Every structure is written in C-alpha cells, then in structure tokens.
Amino acid sequence: MSRGKSFIISGPSGVGKSTILTELMKKRDLYFSVSATTRDPRPGEENGVHYHFIDRETFQKWIENGEFLEHAEFVGNCYGTPKRYVDEAMEQGRDVILDIEVQGAEQVIALRPETVRIYIAPPNWEELERRLTSRGTDSPEKIRQRLERAQEEYKTAHAYDYFVINDSIENAVRELDSIMTAEHCKPAERYAQLAD
Ligand code: ADP
Ligand code: 5GP
C-alpha cells in the first residue's frame, strides 16, 4: 500500500473552505487534520471534531513538546497542526487535508516539499465580505481584520500549485476532486502500483 498524500488548503477566512471540504469528504476518503487553536468555538463547532480548543498555556506546552508540524498566529489567536495524527493517517495510505493559512503552509513546505498546495479564492472581495457577514460568527472588527489578512495572503497565492475559485460549491468541489485524482496519476505512484 502506498503512503497517502498531503494537501494544504488555504484561502481567506469565510471563502467556504469548511463548506467545500465537508462536501468533498462525502466523495473521497480523506483524513481532515484537526488543528489546535486558542480561539473560542463557534456555535456548532465541537471539540476534537472541528478543532482541539485549548488555552494559550497548553498551546505553548504543545510547542515545547514538539507536537506541532507547524503553527502560526492568525488575527489574535494561535493555530497549529498536531503532527502525530497526520503521520499516522498517511502511513495508513490515507490522503490528508491541512486547512491552514499561508505562514503555516510555508513551514510545511520547508519540511515536506512534496505537499500539494491548493488556494481557494472568492469570486470577488464583496462576496467574501458578504459570506463572512452572513456566517454571523465574527464581530465587525474581526471581519475587518480577517478581510485585511485575506488581501495580504492573496499576494502569495501565486506560489501555490493550484488555484480554485469558490463561485459555486459544486464547481469548487469538482475541481478539488479532479486535482486530487490527478495528483495520484503521477508516474512515480503509478509505477509503484504496477510493481506491487
Ligand atoms: P471558511 O471555512 O473558509 O472560513 P465557511 O465554509 O465557514 O468558510 O463558509 C463561510 C460562509 O460562506 C458560510 O456561511 C457558507 O455557507 C458560505 N458559502 C460557502 N461557499 C459558498 C458559495 N460557493 N456560495 C455562497 N456561499 C457560500
Ligand atoms: P478560523 O478561525 O476561521 O477557523 O481559521 C482562521 C484561519 O486559520 C484560516 O485561514 C485557517 O485556514 C487557519 N488555520 C486553521 N487551522 C490552522 C493550523 O493548524 N495552522 C495554521 N497555520 N493555520 C490554521
């Protein structure tokens, strides 16, 4: 059995990453890496499912114990990817999804350059603001900070391997699904399969 692949999904807060990943996971077997964060849960978010919600002191301990593959600060909170579960899932041959922002993505690429990076963009900035507002989970000030951060991050999106525009959920899911399929058609993996 070949090792699973890892895919980084980045894109502005509110662009629809969680929404399209939820749909994609109905079509493909994917391990969603559950990050740790110091931010408060949103209504409907469950500890251990959407995030591991931990305090700053615990976050610091996890850093010191080398538990994170990467970690970064985003709009006043800390976010990090616990390494162990990612590695276990890949060993089991499962593809792994890392929903992380661009600083974390750079750290992962420095360590594991084979990771595939996919950037999810909104059709336009007005629509992004509308989605962030209609989600109803952030204060106007937090929305402003998230939009500012989105415009900053957008400047680095050209470094990603793929660029998907989330105009409709259906299109975005189809493109993500196709990208992942294509990544499994690379010669190295196919030769290994034939040699099994
Ligand atoms: P993210 O995980 O990127 O922060 P969410 O998945 O929480 O974003 O989506 C933010 C909001 O945008 C949600 O209310 C969601 O229902 C909505 N949304 C997601 N994709 C689309 C789309 N293609 N068209 C319209 N609304 C969308
Ligand atoms: P949110 O608070 O909207 O759930 O996430 C805010 C941002 O943090 C998003 O861009 C999301 O991709 C990113 N993020 C979530 N988990 C991680 C993580 O483990 N590491 C990093 N670097 N970013 C993360």
Question: Mind explaining what this structure looks like?
Answer:
The protein has eight helices and nine strands. A hairpin with a 2-residue loop joins strand 5 (68-74) and strand 6. 45% of the residues lie in helices and 21% in strands. The protein has helices at 17-27, 56-64, 83-91, 102-111, 125-135, 140-154, 169-183, 187-195; strands spanning 6-10, 30-32, 35-37, 51-53, 68-74, 77-82, 95-99, 116-121, 162-165. By secondary structure, the chain is α/β, with parallel strands linked by helices. The strands form two sheets. Strands 2-7-1-8-9 form a five-stranded parallel β-sheet, with helices on both faces. Strands 4-3-6-5 form a four-stranded mixed β-sheet. Helix 1 crosses helix 7.
Name the strands of the widest sheet in spatial order.
Answer: 2-7-1-8-9
| Coarse shape | globular
Count of runs of 4 or more consecutive helical residues: 8
Bound molecules: adenosine-5'-diphosphate, guanosine-5'-monophosphate
Largest sheet: 5 strands, parallel
Q: Structural class of the secondary structure composition?
A: alpha/beta
Q: Compute the CA-based radius of gyration.
A: 17 Å
H-E string:
EHEEEHEEHEHEHHEHH
The helicity comes to 40-55%
